[in-house]
Each structure stands twice: as C-alpha cells, then as structure tokens.
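Justification of computing resources. Each target in the renewal requires a structure prediction run like the one illustrated here; the chain below, 143 residues long, is used simply to show the kind of job we budget for.
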Amino acid sequence: MKGFVYFILALGRERTAVKIGYTNSSPHKRLKSLQTGSSAELMLVAVIEGDVSLERALHATFNAVHSRGEWFLLSGRLFSLVAALHASTDRGSKPIGVATFRAVCDKYLFDPVPLVIAEGEDDERWHLTADVGHLMQWFELRG
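Resulting structure tokens:
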C-alpha cells in the first residue's frame, strides 16, 4: 500500500532521536498524534512517498543506531541523510518522490565521503551506522 515514510525528530533530549515511520494518511496528522503523548517537542523533518517496505529497509539500514521501537539515535549517516532530506523536502513540508530520494541516498549514503560530522563524535562510529545494502536492494526491486 502506498503512503508516506516520515522522519520525526524528538528535540530537547540528551541524545536527539528520530522516528522513521510509515503512514497511509497525513504525516502531519501522525505528528500531532505522536506529540500528544510525548514530553519532547516533535518536528516533522522529511517525508518520502513510499510504502512499508521502504520503512523496513530504512530500519534495517540504521539498525546500528536503533534506540527503541521505530526510534533511532540521530548520528552518523542517519544524521547526514536526515539533514539532506530536510533540505530536499522544503523543510519537511512536502513529500519527495523515489527519484529524488535515490539522488539524496547516492550522495549521502552510498558515497562514503560526504559525511556531516558533529562536534565531539567519534569519526569511526560515523562510518559504522549504516548498512546500506538493505536500502540498495529496495531500490533495485523498484527498477
């Protein structure tokens, strides 16, 4: 079933976390629903047109920084991807298609060079936070 894969940041925590989720309705409604039960401020940062298989591929890709449920620590390649997607989706206000998502992944995930490194992070850990094979396989299945 087609819908949207979204990235929601939980702000104001010791370590910033991002939720990678799927909805077949409005990501903005999903944000409001999550905000009701959260003590942290939540922010919708990116939306991709996709399905549950994309959500699963992203979860597997970033398993090394998995925190709990659908939440992941915002570090390494996930940080780079979320920052690039946020810019590509007009600050999370409109969804992007698979072609644009692939272009962002090519630049920030599949190419090992352009990492955004946050102050105080261990450079080696940044290279270990993504198993891109899962996401590459997802793209191959889509032609």
